[in-house]
Here is the input.
Amino acid sequence: MAELPQIHSVHASQAGRVARGSRHASGRGERPSLASLVNWPFLLVIALLVAYGLLVCWSAVQGLEKYSFNRQLAGVGAGLVVMAVLWRFDYRRLANMTTALLVINVVLILLPHVPGLGTTAGMGARSWIKIGMQVQPGEFAKVTVVLFAASLLARYQGTLDDWREYCKVLGMLLIPFACIMTQPDLGTGLVYMAISAVVLVMGGAKGRYLAVTVIAGVAAIAAVFAVDEMLKYQLPDGTWEYRLLKNYQRRRLLVFLNPEADLSGDGYNLAQAKIAIGSGGLAGKGFLQGTQIKYGFVPERHTDFIFCTVGEEWGFLGALTVLGLLCALILRLMRMGERQEEPFGRIYCYSVAAILLFHVLVNVGMTVGLMPVMGIPLPFMSYGGSSLIAFTILVFIAVRLDAATRQFSLGAKY
Here is the structure.
């Protein structure tokens, strides 16, 4: 593999600003306070989302013996500790650590395959590890994927105009996707693809390269279905088993294309989700009063279908509040990205915004039949400590990058 270009501007271009800032700061005789560096409106939006999420999760886990609300509270506490630890680290140092970030990412994703450590969940996906408690490494790998992708594309300084370099970058971005599909976890894999698309655009890839990639991707999807059809085999009970796509994945796609075809079978979950959201009306049935939720008609009401709990108990206004807060979070991340003076920080902030947007579109879309059903949590709302902590890390690194940028703009040495 050819050597990647080195970043010369991440630290070097700031050296002059640091020197000038040091002289300026010494003239003032004081360092900017912490409060002047933190984006408090951004943190307020996160706090409101987490608080709302706790309220909804409390209702959703009622009657579910396997799931404890205290675990979600523990996840919030762990997130606060992580925020305090992360604040002291300057993440711009990661801009030149592409290879190390890729290795860490691959190790995280493949951890569930370690004998005695990994465990299956859901429809047989080997996505979890047991270390006294269940942890989903793929969620934390989203952080390393974004850092790796931002580090990789920042090296090209917004001018990825060489076809060979583009192919090399694309190949490296596909490594995390290939690893996660060994579990297989299609939902998280699609998140990685969304990250890759954003960083390629932000990294300055030419439009014709992107167009060829999209066409190749569509052709690859068609090839998967064609090959799978040829490799299928019949089980003793007369049903067909496929080797590439799991049967449940195919059924989800068929339900998405024709949700009314089997309302008592594969289409049942989607039908009940629509009933729950629609029955909430304008203001909802009230906290802990959702009948579709309370009596177990909605599947995974605390995780993938958490938006149904919001819709039934809090109604249209409650759902609009959640979407409004998430939109505010995404827009503020994009604004942070615009403030970044270096490619690494800019690509990182936009990538995190893309992750949140993708999660919102898929999670909310699948509950109303606009997207196929897949295991994608709603950020800061769905039950699960791994997801909550991972999203906390993602957004707080953006807060830290933004603080560093604002500090340099104030002329203070960090």
